[in-house]
Design goal:
single chain; 403 residues; alpha+beta; Glucose Permease (Domain IIA); nine-stranded mixed β-sheet; three-stranded antiparallel β-sheet; 14 strands; elongated; binds zinc ion
């Protein structure tokens, strides 16, 4: 009887523990889920977007293929190459987001696994403790308990208690199996995430190689254009024409804006448009092309040493009057600072402002690049005062002559 009552007490005690356990178990699960915001569906959305980009790319490719006659279509080809480069840059950003997503999910899964493993250890410990208790009390076998029954009513009562204990033991075993299954499923998911992340990383390497090759091709095209001035005189004239039309439009727009706002300009007051380079690779003014009668007039300065990743800053506060792409300037932004006073930033990889935006001095307008008629990454920078271009070098203290 002593044994029995002890067992009964033990059984009750463990049952209480089991209930507590179930409560704790139910509480622990949602903790991990609220930790981070990234979900698998975020990554799936990125993948859908990547499919759209791939479609855009093949469309551009087929257009490029139809422009077989390079000589006649060098500018048109350059525009398409810029579009292709822009799509590749988007692809790279997308893949980087995917990788970041996988890494966030992996970190979350690792945390959850750690919790699950702790849980498993606890449940296993409980199971062992329970087994030990049974061994210590000589009740390791349910049959032994039954055989020790004093009479039939004792047997029935023992049977009921054993049922309780058996149910409890079954519960402990089930919870152990359950947590093991959860751990294994999570480990499989973790492996899947790792494989997907690896695949994305490999894709990223390939996309970056693609980007380099596309930039090289686009730049080589402009080298070809600029180094054969006589051969491409018509297309170069087209470039100059476009730049002049843009300049006319700029003056009109800034005058109109100034009239609307009663806004007059004060001369000067510009900062450098980039903070990391002081190298001027091409000055303002006439450029000797080496071919008589074919000298071109440079309307701004070229700032080199900027690569494809330098922020381009508004050199003076104002309002963005143009944020666009043109075959000559590529991605360019014009900021008006008052009547007849504007600054222009050209050949950028990307623009981060829109027409009508108010910008403070030093605000980021975009990122340097080599779009449009450009044979390598640089910032083409122009200043217009009183409706005419002036030499920006007057306003670029500490410049380094690199032409
Ligand atoms: Zn230039």
């Amino acid at each position: 009887m002593k044994k029995f009552s002890f067992l009964k007490r033990m059984g009750r005690c463990l049952l209480v523990l089991a209930v507590l356990f179930a409560l704790v178990g139910a509480d622990a699960a949602p903790l991990a889920e609220t930790a981070e915001a990234v979900t698998q569906s975020d990554i799936d959305a990125l993948k859908d977007n990547a499919d759209d980009l791939a479609d855009q790319k093949s469309e551009i490719k087929s257009q490029l293929a139809s422009l077989r006659d390079e000589k006649a279509n060098i500018l048109a080809k350059r525009v398409l190459l810029d579009q292709q480069i822009a799509v590749t840059e988007k692809e790279i950003a997308n893949t980087e987001d995917q990788i970041a997503g996988y890494e966030a999910l992996l970190a979350q899964t690792a945390l959850e696994l750690e919790e699950n493993q702790k849980e498993e250890e606890e449940r296993y410990e409980l199971f062992c403790k329970r087994t030990r208790v049974m061994e210590e009390n000589g009740t390791a076998s349910y049959w032994a308990v039954l055989f020790n029954a004093e009479d039939f009513s004792d047997l029935l009562s023992r049977l009921a208690d054993i049922q309780e204990v058996m149910d409890y033991d079954q519960g402990v075993l089930d919870s152990l199996r359950e947590i093991r299954a959860e751990i294994e499923a999570k480990q499989a998911y973790q492996q899947q995430l790792k494989d997907d992340a690896e695949a994305s990383k490999a894709a990223l390497v390939a996309q970056k190689e693609d980007l380099d090759a596309q930039r090289e091709e686009a730049n080589a095209l402009v080298v070809q254009l600029e180094s054969n001035v006589a051969e491409y005189s018509e297309q170069l004239a087209q470039v100059e024409e476009e730049e002049e039309a843009i300049q006319k439009e700029i003056v009109e727009k800034t005058n109109q804006l100034a009239a609307e706002m009663g806004w007059n300009a004060t001369a000067g007051g510009y900062i450098w448009p980039v903070t990391t380079s002081r190298r001027i690779t091409s000055p303002y003014g006439p450029r000797n092309t080496g071919i008589p009668g074919a000298s071109t007039n440079h309307k701004g300065v070229d700032i080199g040493g900027v690569g494809y990743t330098t922020n381009v800053l508004a050199t003076k506060a104002g309002i963005v009057i143009t944020s666009a792409y043109s075959s000559s300037y590529g991605n360019y932004v014009v900021v008006s600072h008052g009547k007849g006073n504007t600054t222009l930033y050209a050949h950028m990889s990307s623009r981060s402002v829109s027409e009508g935006d108010t910008v403070a001095q030093g605000d980021v307008l975009g990122v340097t690049g080599s779009t449009g008629v450009s044979s390598g990454p640089h910032l083409h920078y122009e200043i217009t005062e009183n409706g005419s271009r002036v030499n920006p070098l007057n306003y670029l203290p500490g410049y380094v002559q690199a032409w």
